[in-house]
User: What shape does this take?
Amino acid sequence: CVCACVYVGVFVSLDLERMENATLRCFKDLEVESNTTGILCQLLSRSSIASIPDATVVKMKDVVVKAIDQWDLSAYRSINYGSLQPLLLLCAEDDPVLQYWATWAMQNLCTTNPMMYCPMLLRENGYEVVSKLLKHDDTVTSNSNSN
Assistant: This one.
């Protein structure tokens, strides 16, 4: 969790070069990096992000996309979501980067633990949410530019 603490501390100071370097060093541990990315995406979805300069937000989103692009979708994460609602809410955001994170996380959960997460996805209307995303052309995909 040291990387997560460093990451959050650097994020608060908005020293983007240090933030990206700390994040890239953490990429060796999917558990830490995915949790950290999830927190960052939740922060990016908040209205308080409006006070952060646009260039900073773009850089933060680039860090998120670079992280996700490096992950193995079939890698097991020992995380236990009681609900997919936080991820489904990010899918409803008008931001392709946040949608990318949320859909990656849900696909990873449903792939690595289908007995738990596939029924949860259906029960929480996740199929409908993801189906809506598939109809849009502005969704970020692997190795795409998030600008």
Remarks:
- Residues 1-10, 143-147 have pLDDT under 50 and may be disordered.
- The two ends are 30 Å apart (CA to CA).
- The longest helix spans residues 54-70.
- Residues 5 and 140 are 28 Å apart (CA to CA).
